[in-house]
Each structure stands twice: as C-alpha cells, then as structure tokens.
Amino acid sequence: MDRTTILHAVDSVYESELEFLAELVRHPSTRGQEQSAQDFVATDLSDRGFDVDRWEIDVNDISNLPGFSPVIGNYEDAVNVVGSLRSRTRSGRSLILNSHIDVVPTGPLDMWNRPPFDPYIDGDWMYGRGAGDMKAGLASNLFAIEALKHLGLRPAADVFFQSVVEEECTGNGALACLHRGYRADAAFIPEPFAEKLVSSQVGVIWFQVHLRGLPTHVAYAGSGANAIEAAIPLFEALHRLERQLNAMECRHHDYVDHSHALNLNIGKIEGGDWASSVPAWCVVDARIGVFPGHSLEDVRRMIEETVFDAARNHPSLARSPPEIFYNGFAAEGYSFKDDKSAAAHAALATLDRAHSHVAGKPLEHEAITATTDARFFGLYADMPALVYGPRADAVHGFNERVDLASVRRVTQTTALFIADWCGLEKV
C-alpha cells in the first residue's frame, strides 16, 4: 500500500477523530470516576468491530506480580477495556496499542479559562483536562486503525487496543492487562512527548510521612509540639537526598546531560484540627524519581534513613519518630535504549521510517523525567515499548491543551507504523 494513500486516509477520518476526542474529554475520568469514559470506549470499539473485553481489576490477582504498586483507596469499579482485532492471516507482527483513560484532578475550577471538561478548539489547539494526557493518544491509536479500515484494510496480525486506568498513580491497569494474558511483539504508547521517542523514563516512588505532635492551647504553645512545623526540617533533608541522587556518579547513562532528572515533590500536606490548637498530627505526601536500573528498595532505604536521621535532631520528633508508608507508585525506571533485542531494533526502525515520512526529518529521542506504563511491557513482558505521541501543553496544569496538527501527524505516523509492523490484509 502506498504511504501517501494511507496519509490521505487519515485526513479523511480526521474530523471524526476530533469529534471522538472531544466527546472523550467530556467524560471527567479522574481516579475512581473512569466508568462512563470506559463505557463510551467499549461501546465505540464494539461498534467498530473489535472484540471487547471489559473487566474490573481485582487487586488480589495482581498484588504479587512484579511491578505492582500499593493501591490508594477503593478499587471497586476500576475498569479496564481491551478491544481485540484478530487477523485472519497472522502474517505480520502483533501489536498492543496502549493508552490510559484516567486523568489527574483539575484543581480550583476558577483558575481555568473555561470548565475543564468542556472541550473547545481555539486555533490549532483543543483545550480540556485529559485532552493531551492522554486522550488524544487514545484517539490517534483508534483512528490510525480506522484510516486503514477506510481503505478496506486491516492489520495482518493481532492488535490489542487497551484503554487502562491507574496510569497516573500506580500503573496497575496496564499490569492487569498483562495478567489477563495480553501479549504482543511490541507495544505502542502515544503519551504526549512532542513526537519524540522516549528513550528512557525514570521510576517513581510515592510515600507518606506521618508526624505526631503534642497538642495544647495556642496560649501555651511553648509547652506543646507543632506537628506541621516539624515537617519543615524533613523537607530540607529530603531535598538534600534529591541532590545526592542526581549526582553525576549516580546517573543512568541516558541522563548524563540532565543535571536534575530526579525530582522530589512535596505534593500534599494535611494536619491539625483547630486554628487555636497546636497541631497534634501532620501527614505529608511526597514523590521522588528513580533512575533506570536503580533498586526501589535501595531508594526506600535512603528515604527512611534521611527522614529518621533528621528526626533525631528535632526536639519533638526525637521523642516521637515519624512513620513512613508507601502508597501509589512503586515504579521502576525503564530504558528502551538499553533494550538490544532484535525486536526492539526492528520496532525502532519501523517507527523511524514512519515518522520520517510524515515529519520530513529523522525521529528524535528524549530521556524523560516522568514515568509511563511502558515499564510493564519492557521490564516484565520482554516486549519493546515505544512511547511516542503528540505535542501537548499545560499537562497536569490549568488550561491543558493538545496541538491538533501534531495529533494529525501522530495518527498518520501510527497508521504507517501499523501498516509496516503488522502488515495489511483486506477487511
């Protein structure tokens, strides 16, 4: 099949792709609220001829698997959706098209220009929570297949279209797909990294520090112990650990030019019960990055040593030491660049050809300072995982938006990639 014909086929379905994306953004699929979006995806996949598998994740099924992260809150109605397109000939290489349906919270609504789940187009951008991260990628996966269908063609190998939950806090949705038996010769994940291949990604650890103080009336504050203020020297100590982890001698080879690839974030703090009472408790939620190849256990040990050493030098924490709990991400770093397998080499060459044809220039590579679900396929399923998606702006921020011209190019690249990687057969 001529490549130009495939590109024109993407153009033919592009308006439908934008309508699909806008409808998907209208579903406020924050953690625990993904069901309506997943219902929409499942129904759409079924209407397009996919065999649909929709199931609720059972934590007991995956809690002992490599890559599992401690869960946050209730897992009732944590729903995954996979649509399968089974090839008749199976003459090509199989593929997982993975994307996540969950989005991060919006923050204060009055800080958005318009309601976050009311998508709109301004110029060449579509605005809305999740438009970039990563519902545009989900749409590009689907409409790459749809463009081929428009030509009377389909992949000549099995393709599994995955819409998963939990990517933003654990990754357990992708892990549940592996447990359910979904395997392929490669995985393709269109996360919004500006049409660059993610060569490496850091790991992530989420942890909580629980502090106890001594409550008293504020009139006698000197006789109490303020649990919130006691957290401040711990922040300073954790930032020293952050600098230590980023030292040149600790860096993965793909991050030698990153002076600060691993970021500590004090993301949430709660404490106290009354403005005129010295606070008796404080809970701090934090996140820290981990280089590929570094042991999560080693970094956890360093976190604990850092917190407890700082506590021993604090008058109230020395008497009542902090407690550390791990919830959410326990994600190892993953480097596609380190995968020297023939499958990884072939997948990269296939994507490079597709991207170069669409963009008119070679594929750029980037080591990112975040994590994606690629680690599950690359580390635990012996499957090269390509992360390549559109350009987006204000991801996780206010007025999140995705570049629609970039979405079109990524859809074209994905269609070419599928045609080359999987081969084609008649519908």
UniProtKB/TrEMBL annotation:
Keyword list, A-Z: Cobalt, Hydrolase, Metal-binding, Plasmid, Zinc
SUPFAM superfamilies per record: Bacterial exopeptidase dimerisation domain, Zn-dependent exopeptidases
Domain Peptidase M20 dimerisation positions: 201-311
InterPro entries from the UniProt entry: ArgE/DapE, Bact_exopeptidase_dim_dom, Peptidase_M20, Peptidase_M20_dimer, Peptidase_M20A, YodQ-like
Cofactors demanded by this protein: Co(2+); Zn(2+)
A GO molecular function held by the record: hydrolase activity
Keyword Metal-binding part of the UniProt annotation: yes
Sequence similarity: Belongs to the peptidase M20A family.
UniProt protein name: Putative amidohydrolase/peptidase/deacetylase
Organism: Rhizobium leguminosarum
Gene name in the database record: argE
